[in-house]
Amino acid sequence: MSSAAKLRKQQKSDSVVETSGAGWSPQKNVFIACLVLVVATLAFYNPVAHCGFVYSDDVPYVTGNSQVQAGLTWNTVEWAFGAVHMGFYHPLTFLSHALDCQLFGLNPAGHHYVSLLLHTASAVLLFLLLLEATGAGWPSLVVAALFALHPENVESVAWASER
Prior knowledge:
Radius of gyration: 24 Å
Number of strands: 0
Number of helices: 9
Largest sheet: none
Shape: elongated
Order of helices and strands: HHHHHHHHH
Structural class: mainly alpha
Strand content: under 5%
Helix content: over 70%
């Protein structure tokens, strides 16, 4: 092997070594990126704990709905999958509200935190999906953070029946 070829080979291996450990990237630190996304989302939306129920839709879906307030029972499951309420068919939404009522009663903080946890999980799943699909760590994290923290999503987190 000529000396020029040896030099090129050495330079190539040196550049691989230099770039392979350089800096932090979401691809290498998926757990930390997910943790940052979770902490940022929970911190950003933490004030939902002080929100009450919204009169317009939370009354017919949660606070004024005796089926939902009964908790997660077989009767509620049958009703949820058979009911068209306010012109909509939402069996999973009704079941999640029934579970919230069983766990938290009519304390709105519990209902809002469940919505916040669902939103946070959705943001993390979006990041992981984009990372797997594209392999682009930073763009995937930025898109997931924009989804998680964009003001347009406040309604789905702070309005219990928006779930």
